[in-house]
Amino acid sequence: MMSSSSSPFLSSAAPDGEHGYVAAGEQPPSTTRSTKSTCMTGTVEGHHRFVIRDYSRLRERLEDGEYVRSGTFSVAGYDWAVVFYPRGNSYRYRDTDHPAVYVQLMTDRAVAAATFDLRFVRADSGKPWSVHPPVAAPHRFSTLPLPFAPAMFGVKVETMQRLQANYICRDRLTIDCIVRVVGKPRVSATAPLPEIDVPPPNLPAHLGSLLAGKTHADVTFDVQGEQFAAHRVVLAMRSPVFNAELFGPMSNAGDPIKVGDMQPAVFKVLLDFIYTDSLAAMEDLDEDTRRELARHLLVAADRYDMDRLKLICGNILEKSLTAQTVASTMALAELHGCRELRDACVEFVIAMGMNDEVMISRHGGDQLHCLSIITHFFNEIKNFCTGVSTICAVILLAQ
């Protein structure tokens, strides 16, 4: 005996300690849950104005490489200062003819990423004027011991003569400093991804309204005296037979097209399916009426080469198979090339243990015209059973 653990039809894996079985090859139902989180990097900006009075006296007093520093100001929790070298920073630039100005991080043992803009206020207009190209990428300021980044960044500016001419007003130099500190990245809490509710497709409903309202209808069908208005392009799109009939060389653009060998109720359901791709009109019918209508629709679907409708009707008939209907259903499937429905009838008879004599006796003389089909049908059943076991075939057909 094969154990359940080795059976190809069962799997003993169950999540979270649960006990259960899932058919081999099947996947448990899954749901999709979409969430999002956001990374944000903010920037804090601060402004400081550093006014140097008695500029000429300060320049005379300081030597090359000496500087004057502004009071500290705070931006984003860090302390900063403006550092100005009236005679240039000889240590940095080896040039004593150009004054230099810097932004310095003053917070002890800190690291900060920031951009800056150093401006001198012009003497003629009183407007600040940047003394260096824009700083796009943040600089890394650090007051940690080497080899970390330096604590200050800056530029050398125009010559002393041009500085004196353009920016010194009443022996006063005004420096504006803008510091923009880039904050640490912050990631928001995970939240459900917002979704916009989109209504279900409504094209079938619109086409159904088009059929019911007969708006712009350009073809009429006569089915046993009852007339149906429709639209050529919709019918041609759904059926190659309608396409040839309505747009081929034998098409008739005038008189109603007569449809023979079909009931008006069947043609109406056929049109509804062509426009809406559903059989909603059959949902409220009782089982016998639904089965009978499905049989007629299958014939119509084969007539107009509508394969999907054939499969739907075959599915309805398969689900309603009984010992009384299997022979006629099998004959219908054979006549209209419904292989899936025919195979379902074979499996049904095998499962019921019926033979050809029993089937014919149950259906009476009105089914004798299908005798050749039934005989062929049972020959296939016997061949199938022989492949499994001759003894099983004898037992099955003897029941």
From TrEMBL:
Gene3D superfamilies: Apoptosis, Tumor Necrosis Factor Receptor Associated Protein 2, Chain A, Potassium Channel Kv1.1, Chain A. One of its GO terms (biological process) is protein ubiquitination. Residues 217-283 form the BTB domain. It comes from the Eukaryota. It holds the Pfam family BACK_BPM_SPOP. Residues 1-39 are annotated as: Disordered. Belongs to the Tdpoz family. This is BTB domain-containing protein.
